[in-house]
Design a protein that fits this description.
One of its GO terms (molecular function) is FMN binding. Pfam families: ODP. Residues 241-381 form the Flavodoxin-like domain. By secondary structure, the chain is of the alpha/beta class. The protein has two domains: 6-232, Ribonuclease Z/Hydroxyacylglutathione hydrolase-like (Metallo-beta-lactamase, Chain A, 4-Layer Sandwich), CATH 3.60.15; 238-382, Flavodoxin domain (Rossmann fold). 34% of the residues lie in helices and 25% in strands. It has twelve helices and 22 strands. The longest helix has 16 residues, at 367-382. The structure holds flavin mononucleotide.
Length: 383
């Protein structure tokens, strides 16, 4: 129970292998749905049809002997809307509520009878009894049809995918880490629309946030809103250095591990290292956004850079990566090419400062290379 009238009817998915076909979710994922019981009953979104039967059972239990009047679709992505058809087969009298874009997209997934729909616009309201729902259109957070719904009676914001996180409900894990990995990988490209929506949210008296994934948020909401403000403005969140590397034979890896020790011995507050071939790429992307200073180190490969690094840089570019200081380290045996290849991709991003004197290793790190790394560590510690 979220409030006296709002019930949780979502489901956990702990047997999904990859979320959105690409993200590892070691603790699963929750597909959230909520019911508002008033004179009229509104259901807030459905769930992935992978869990459709379990969802309908939860819903039936919450409804008792009543029937829903409205199904509000705030986001058409199939992890939330692929049970809409199932829902309507069971509750054909329910009216579908969405905006113009909602119904355009729904029609791409379902052969639905769209006679019984209510099309809402920004600022429209729907009275259920005591509860009045206010619709707030939030295009491109992170699909074009996405909208928030604010219940002014219980002061609850139904925030679609915003403020969501990976992990089934009850997963014993920190909110920030998995919410950040979720945000940057799924919403990250859309910082501007998120900023717009945060401004709208600031005008509302919000007591509880009900996202479509992860826990319901209550208590001091400023910590979640503050994180979203930092993330969507692309500002670094933490002091420290992130080192991402891709190494064929381990020499580049050994060099950056030595660099990590140098940084820590010079007082750098935190140094996080990711092996792009072995560690979760989505987590590496999250770290790259978290810190203001990043070292990219990679072996040269076929006149370019090792593909894991190239892939990583394309991911960063796709997520609007910006406002960071980057140091480059390459390794190559006959014609080192990694720094040039990395620079080419970085130059397509906004506000990226590449530190002078990129380092070139030729095989194993030598004494003179150590000196270059000491200089780099000093630069990263002061700049
Ligand atoms: C398939 C392949 C392609 C390579 N291409 C290049 C290259 O274009 N230029 C170069 O200087 N070295 C090239 N190398 C050599 C590596 O970059 C070199 O061995 C480097 O020292 C590896 O660093 P690591 O030990 O960190 O992997 C290539 C190696 C392999 C296996």
């Amino acid at each position: 129970m979220i409030t006296n009238d709002i019930l949780y009817v979502g489901v956990d998915d702990k047997d999904i292998d990859l979320f959105e076909g690409q993200f590892v979710v070691p603790n699963g994922i929750a597909y959230n749905s909520y019911v508002i019981l008033d004179d009229k009953i509104a259901v807030m979104d459905t769930v992935d049809k992978r869990k459709g039967a379990e969802y309908l059972a939860n819903l039936e239990k919450a409804l008792g002997d009543r029937f829903p009047d409205y199904l509000i679709v705030s986001h058409v992505e199939p992890d939330h809307a692929s049970s809409v058809q199932l829902f309507l087969e069971k509750y054909p009298q329910a009216q579908l509520v969405g905006n113009t874009k909602t119904f355009q997209l729904l029609a791409q997934y379902f052969d639905l009878n769209f006679d019984n729909i209510l099309t809402v616009k920004e600022g429209d309201t729907l009275l259920l009894g005591k509860h009045e729902l206010h619709f707030i259109l939030t295009p491109m957070v992170h699909w074009p049809e996405v909208m928030f719904t604010y219940d002014s009676y219980d002061k609850v914001l139904f925030s679609a995918d915003a403020f969501g996180k990976f992990g089934a409900l009850g997963a014993k894990e920190d909110w920030t880490c998995e919410a950040r990995r979720y945000y940057f990988n799924i919403v990250g490209k859309f910082g501007m629309p998120v900023q717009t929506v945060l401004k709208k949210a600031a005008t509302l008296d919000i007591r509880i946030i009900c996202p479509l994934h992860g826990p319901v948020l209550s208590g001091d909401l400023s910590k979640y809103l503050d994180k979203y403000n930092i993330w969507s403005s692309y500002e670094p969140e933490s002091e420290g250095v992130f080192i991402a590397y891709a190494s064929l034979h381990g020499n580049t890896r050994d060099a950056v591990l030595a660099l990590k020790e140098m940084l820590l011995s010079k007082g750098c507050p935190e140094v996080v290292v990711s092996d792009l071939a072995r560690n979760d790429m989505a987590e590496a992307l999250e770290h790259a956004f978290c810190y203001g200073k990043v070292v990219l180190a990679a072996s040269s490969y076929n006149g370019g850079v090792m593909p894991f690094m190239e892939d990583f840089l394309h991911h960063l570019k796709g997520k609007n990566y910006q406002k960071r200081t980057v140091a480059l380290v390459e390794n190559g045996s006959w014609a080192p090419s990694a720094n040039k290849a990395m620079t080419e991709i970085l130059s397509q991003m906004k506000d990226i400062t590449i530190l002078d004197s990129p380092i070139t290793l030729r095989g194993v790190m030598k004494d003179e290379d150590k000196k270059a790394f000491e200089v780099l560590a000093d630069k990263l510690c002061i700049s």
